[in-house]
Amino acid sequence: MLRACTIDFGKGWVNHFPLVEFSYNNSYHASIKATPFKALYDRKCHSPICWTEVGEAQILGPELIQETTEKIVQIKQRMQTAHDRQKSYADLKRVIGKVAYKLDLPGDLSKVHITFHVSNLKKNHADEPLAVSLDGLHFDDKLHFVEEPV
């Protein structure tokens, strides 16, 4: 994200760093299902009004608000572009292949790996779903099925 901003803003990227930080902290992150600011403080962040240091010339009024809003929108777009590009690379690494499948398993089987080779799977031809109750099944530490005599 920072690389995209340095390319876009050129040598003046340092002046826009607070806006980059603001945009990052107020952008939704799927990993935490919230913005970092909301996750930390449990409230939404208010928009910045002035980023200048003491003694610097300041733009006041609607021009400042307009410029800040435009920069925030631009930075968020750059972040989304970078996220999409990085996601495409990550998705390529998630490809299973022609001989493996990922299965949606119930929560009771959370310790079982969800990727299976096709030789371990059998096609289901039944009209109704064949759900087996997991209450009577027992697994050891290595997740092997433990048979009990009846």
State the helical fraction: 25-40%
If you compute it from the alpha carbons, what radius of gyration comes out, rounded to the nearest whole angstrom? 26 Å
Largest sheet: 2 strands, antiparallel
Strand order of the largest sheet: 1-2
Secondary-structure element order, N to C:
HHHHEE
Number of helices: 4
Show unreliable segments: none
Mean pLDDT: 74
Look at the helices and sheets and give the structural class: mainly alpha
Extended strand count: 2
Estimate what percentage of residues fall within beta strands: under 5%
Q: What gross morphology would you assign?
A: elongated
Measure the end-to-end span.
62 Å
Protein name: Tf2-1-like SH3-like domain-containing protein
Pfam family, one: SH3_Tf2-1
InterPro entries: RNaseH_sf, SH3_Tf2-1
Domain Tf2-1-like SH3-like: 94-124
List the helices and strands and how they pair.
Elements: H1 2-9, H2 17-25, H3 36-41, H4 62-93, E1 100-102, E2 115-117
Antiparallel strand pairs: 1-2
Helix pairs in contact: 2-4
Explain the overall architecture:
A two-stranded antiparallel sheet has the order 1-2. The protein has a domain at 2-93. It is elongated, with a radius of gyration of 26 Å. Helix content is 37%, strand content 4%. With 150 residues, it is mainly α.
Notable traits:
SH3_Tf2-1; RNaseH_sf; 4% strand; Tf2-1-like SH3-like domain-containing protein; nucleic acid binding; mainly alpha
Quick summary:
This protein is mostly helical and 150 residues long. The protein is built from four helices and two strands.
